[in-house]
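Session log. Operator J.P. requested a structure for one protein chain; no other inputs attached. Running the standard single-chain path with token output.
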Amino acid sequence: MTTPGTTARSGSKSAAKSAAGAAGNGAKVRRTRTAPPPAPAPATGPVAGHCDELLRALTPFRDQAGTAQSWGERLARVLAGGGRLLAAGNGGSAAQAQHLTAELVGRYRDDRPPFSAIALHADTSSTTAIANDYGVDEVFARQVRAHGREGDVLVLLSTSGASANLLSAAEAGREAGMSVWALTGPAPNPLAAGSDESLCVRAGSTATVQELHLVTVHMVCAAFDAALEGVLEGRSADDAADA
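Structure written below.
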């Protein structure tokens, strides 16, 4: 005796065999095609405005690209000679500072030797201990006095150019004989004035300033890598001459 469930299963198997047989005999099996998703509408409002602001800021920023190139070339000479880069910032600028040091300790594009570069904010035990014992304004300055040496480079990033802890760090760097470079928002600002050199982004929003700071980091690294080969070859020639 066949139960209804058995009949249903048998029917399903027969249908499957029939479909397979039809396919095997060259019969065409219709397949439904999913329509492609509609193209997104053009961005409007704050999203489009963000792009527009970045484009407006990029043209005057490009005129300062020579500063980034000079920094990269000089940094190659300092680090290849055994010097060190210290970098610091607050919030998003801290992330940009750490991005720079990571590219130098690791690599930017092509493989090359690692170089000494320290993001001061990344040592959380030191920063919190210093803030607790000496005040927030000293969190970077005290580390600069500990790690910085004459001839080293200190890069300070600030969208406002007015952060007290970075101003203290700039002063400590100058006292140590370091080259102090500032990446800031629009000039004039106290950090640009208190540094040896500055690259100031003319933009109306913090986001756009930070985005162009990241572009600067990459330009400095590109210039660093381009100059490094010549620097290392020159040092090798000098060593051979002295031998």
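Operator note: Confidence is low (pLDDT under 50) at residues 6-12.
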